[in-house]
Structure formats: C-alpha cells, structure tokens
Write a structure and sequence with these properties.
CATH superfamily of the largest domain in chain A: Glucose-6-phosphate isomerase like protein, domain 1
Number of domains of chain A: 2
Strand order of the largest sheet of chain A: 2-1-3-4-5
Structural class of chain A: alpha/beta
Oligomer: homodimer
Distance between the termini of chain A: 31 Å
Strand content of chain A: 5-15%
Largest interface: A-B, 86 and 83 residues
CATH class of the largest domain in chain A: Alpha Beta
CATH topology of the largest domain in chain A: Rossmann fold
Helix content of chain A: 55-70%
Largest sheet of chain A: 5 strands, parallel
Number of strands of chain A: 5
Shape of chain A: elongated
DNA sequence: CGAATTTATGTAAATTATTTTCTTGTTGAT
DNA sequence: ATCAACAAGAAAATAATTTACATAAATTCG
C-alpha cells in the first residue's frame, strides 16, 4: 500500500483548480482534513461535495472514507502549501524541505523500481562465490561501502573499492561465479565502465545500480535503474542518495531471505562478538 | 493524542460481551476494521450498528468515524514497526516494507528532532576552523564519511575517521575553534566517548548525533538525539540509517545556508573540475 | 476566430451510513 | 418474585455520501 500523500504531491500538476484547492487544505491542515466530513472539507475548499469525491477517486481511492483512512495513515510530512520551496532559511523549513524531499524520492522509487531487475540481482548475489562492489565519488563510494557492509553479514565474501586502478586490477582477477556490482548516480563514470567491461569479459556477472540507459547501465547484465531529477539548488544535498540506499537495502534484504539458512550463523557470530566485547546489550542494531 | 488501541486494551474489562466481540475483531483484523463501515463491522461482530456506536463512545470518541480515523492512525503506527516479517518474501512486499519503514522513520524524525540542537550544531560547524567527524562500525563510519563528503564542499576543512586510535590521537591535537562530531547509533561506543572527552578537554566544541541520554550524547555540548526502535528481525537492514543521513543532510544544508557566501566558490570549483575532466554535463549532482 | 468537443463543476435526487429514540430482554440484588 | 440497572436490538430520523444529470468553462480543431 502506497502513501497517499506521497501520491498526491506527485500528482499535483494533473489536478484541476478546484482539486488543487482541496489538496492545499489537506497539506495545510492535516488534522482538519482527517477529521472533517466531506461537506466540511468541501465548504472549506469552496467546492461542492461531489468534487471532493472525484478528487478522492482520482487519487485511486474508491470512496471519500477510504481516502480519509489512507490520509490518517500517511506518514508523509509535506510542506506548507504556500511555501516557495528553495529559499527556506529557518531550521523548521529546512527540516521539512529535506525530509519531504527524501520521502518523495522514496515514494517515486516505489513507482519506478524494476522488480524483475531487483529479483535477478538478488538471486545472482545470493549464490555468488565472491561479490565486488565498485563506486567512486562522494556518493557512489559510500554506496559501495554500504553494499559491502550489508552483504558480509550474510556470509558472502565481499569486497568494495572506490579506487579506479584497484577496480580495474580487481576486475582482471574475477571468475565466472563472481558478481561485480557497479554503482553510479550519473551513469557516466567511464573508469567504472572500463572496469565493469573487463569483469564482464572474464565471465563475472555484472550488476549495476545506475541511471537507466546510461553508459554504466549498458555494461550490465542486470541494471537496477534509478533516475531522479535533482534539484537545481547547489547548496542542497542530493536526495538521490536516499533512493540508492533504499535500493541497496531492498537488494540486501532479498539476498538475506534467499540465503536465510546460510546467513543466520554469520549474523549470530557478529552479534555475539559485539555483545561480548562491548557491553552486553543485545537489543542494538548489528554494528554501530 | 492518545493511542486508541492502547486505550482499548486497557478498557477491555469494562466492556460488555458484545463490545468485547467488537474489540476482538479490531485486534484480530485491523485492516478490515479500518476499512469497514459501521454496518459491516457490526455484522461481522454479530451485533447491531448502535452497539458499535456505543462502543466508540465508550472509548472516548464522539462518533464512529472519529473512532475509525483514530484507529487508522494508531493501527498504522503499530503496523509500521511491527514485523510483517516472514511473510514478506516476495519482491513486491519487501520493496513496500522497506520503503514504508524508511518513510516512517523520516516521519518520526520530523516529530522528534530537536530544532535548537540542530541549529546550534550548524552554527558551530559553520564557523569552525576545522571539523572532525568520528564514527565506527558498519553504520556510523559511513555517517562520518558522509559528513565529510557534505562539509568539504562548503569550503570547510574537514576530516573523518573510523579508527579508534586515530580518533584518540586526532582528538589530542584539536584547538578551541575546532568542532568534533561524534556519531553513534547505539550511543555506547566507549572508545568514541574517550576520544570525544579528550577533544572536549582540549577546548574543542563537541557535537554528537546519537541516542539521547546515552554515554556518547553525554560527552557533547550539543547532542542531536536520534532514538528509533529497531525491528527485531536481524535479517532486515536497520532503518535508523535513514534518520541519521537525513539529520546529516539537514545539518549540512543549514551550514551551507549560514556559509552561503563562503560556500559558493568551492562548490563552483568542484563542479568546474568535474565538468572539465568528465564529460561536460552540467546537470549532474555534485560528485557521482 | 468561432464552432465543436472535451473537461470541470455544481445542483438536486437517490442512496447509503450513522445516530437517536424507544422498546425489550437480561442479570443480579433484595 | 420484583425491581433496578444495564445491554442490545428495531425502527425511525438524521446526516453523509454518491449518482445522475445539467451547465459552464476550457480547449481543440477547422
């Protein structure tokens, strides 16, 4: 089930004037919208009740009350309606802007993710002899590290690198049952492309998480496509990272499921080491 | 707003037989209860609609629809953190579970984030002579790297370390206008605590992003508290990471605003280097 | 530019959901 | 056994929501 307010914020342009007025009230005063009857909501938006019904239908709900329930469940933060987005300067606004954008990114990921690619990637990784994760630059090298961080726990032999020369050399040593994962937001990292091509030439299965149809994506047997417009404000951190991390989470979780029996023991050992050598609290996440 | 399901389980004894039957259905099948009309719910509990109305009133709601909204809110919060675990084995479900949880984490961050701490942290960082970011373990070392990745772009001298010995040695070299940022999900990283204490002793301003009231948090002049219950399923990646990254994004963005004039030039230079040495596409995020 | 068509929206009627009122039945104390 | 007090349903009243239809606005196309 998808978050209704996430959907709403994406569909905004497709709405008519009256419908946008309704949406405005919903973003502006969620407590009111959640508790109001269709008549009250219609009155406040200065539209007729049937318009509200139509509005709900357009968002994929079968009735107004279904819409209300979904609205009540929504975890979407959303910004005050009037706010012109990017000149937010006070703390409250920055917090709202960044969290809302992160949520929107996750929401749109939900719509665009290629489930088959995800599944193919997880299947290949789960039975790999060795997994290599390659990425460079401020963001993608973080992703490569993260992939290693997730996969080694599942008892997979994993190595990550953000160094082009190492990637190239490593790629020359792979064998047929290995998986090489290439990460790139832009999809234009030519050094990475070279390394992936080499790995592919030596028979490794190449998986990428990158922009669809990009240079990097073209090198892969399976590409998990992530394509999100970045804002223009250079001061604003790129929220694509949330999408990449979520994609990595999803793949890693699926690998964990596919390797369930193999993964339990390494996880148990890691936990036991941490608990023994730290301070015996068993309830913490695995690794700080 | 009180949690209606909590209220319900407390009031259980005070309910009549019919009302308990209604309660039973609500506990048993919340998706049904949340979507059903009063007639459907009454039919399933084999009671009459007025009995359902009375039931809602007894729980402090003014009407059935108010009850339903409250139920939707509280049921969903439970549902979000509760494990739909073992049955989430197909790709679609895993994707939804992970994205929903990530979104919920961001939502709850929005509710709990201490704006004053955020602002104080950003102010201190923005005018620091040098910024050190310390974190260890699979997750927190990633955060430390991320913090460096964000801050160096703003023309701040920044260094990060995930090595306890280095942290300790580095902490011995700090001076009064430096800022040291400690990162820890659990708040129990004793080696980090030691390094932060040392840095603090030499006059640096210590900021932490960690669990409120934890050992790590106690060392700081300013702690940005993040406390999110982790699921119990060891196979599932910890979604606290999204909260930490979002917090880092927020702080970094505020620093960027506070340093606006100082930050533009380094950003321009980074971009120009990337564009010159890669392939002239100006529309990409800063760094792959 | 203006007719034709589509789309958006409101009004009023029909339907459905919910609550109120009233009645009956049940339980348990005296 | 009788009376209170409570529980719960039936039917009626009310309120909310949707449907069907009509009209106005916007858009397309000649």
């Amino acid at each position: 089930m998808v978050d209704i307010l996430g959907t709403l914020s994406q569909e905004m342009d497709g709405l008519s004037r009256s419908e946008q007025r309704i949406a405005g009230i919903i973003f502006d005063d969620r407590p009111f919208a959640v508790n109001a009857s269709i008549i009250e909501l219609a009155a406040r938006a200065e539209v007729s009740p049937p318009t509200v019904t139509r509005f709900c239908r357009r968002l994929g709900c079968q009735s107004f009350s279904e819409f209300k329930v979904r609205l009540a469940q929504s975890a979407f933060i959303g910004q005050r309606y009037e706010e012109p987005q990017s000149n937010a300067t006070n703390v409250q606004e920055v917090v709202e802007t960044i969290l809302t954008r992160a949520q929107s990114v996750l929401h749109s990921l939900h719509d665009h993710l290629d489930m088959d690619a995800i599944d193919a990637a997880a299947t290949a990784i789960a039975k790999a002899d060795m997994v290599y994760a390659f990425g460079s630059g401020g963001n993608s090298s973080l992703f490569a590290g993260e992939l290693q961080n997730r996969l080694f726990r599942l008892g997979l032999r994993t190595s990550s690198s953000n160094d082009h020369s190492m990637q190239l050399m490593t790629a020359s040593t792979v064998s047929a049952n290995d998986v090489v994962i290439g990460l790139s937001i832009s999809g234009r990292n030519r050094e990475l492309v070279r390394a992936l091509d080499v790995a592919s030439g030596y028979g490794a299965k190449v998986i990428t998480i990158s922009k669809p149809n990009s240079l990097v994506a073209e090198t892969a047997a399976t590409n998990i496509g992530i394509d999100l417009a970045e804002g223009v404000d250079v001061l604003r951190p790129s929220s694509a990272r949330f999408a990449f991390l979520a994609a990595i989470d999803i793949v890693a979780h699926l690998v964990a499921i596919k390797r369930k029996d193999l993964a339990i023991e390494p996880l148990r050992r890691i936990k036991s080491q941490l608990v023994t050598h730290r301070d015996g609290d068993d309830s913490q996440p695995l690794g700080d």
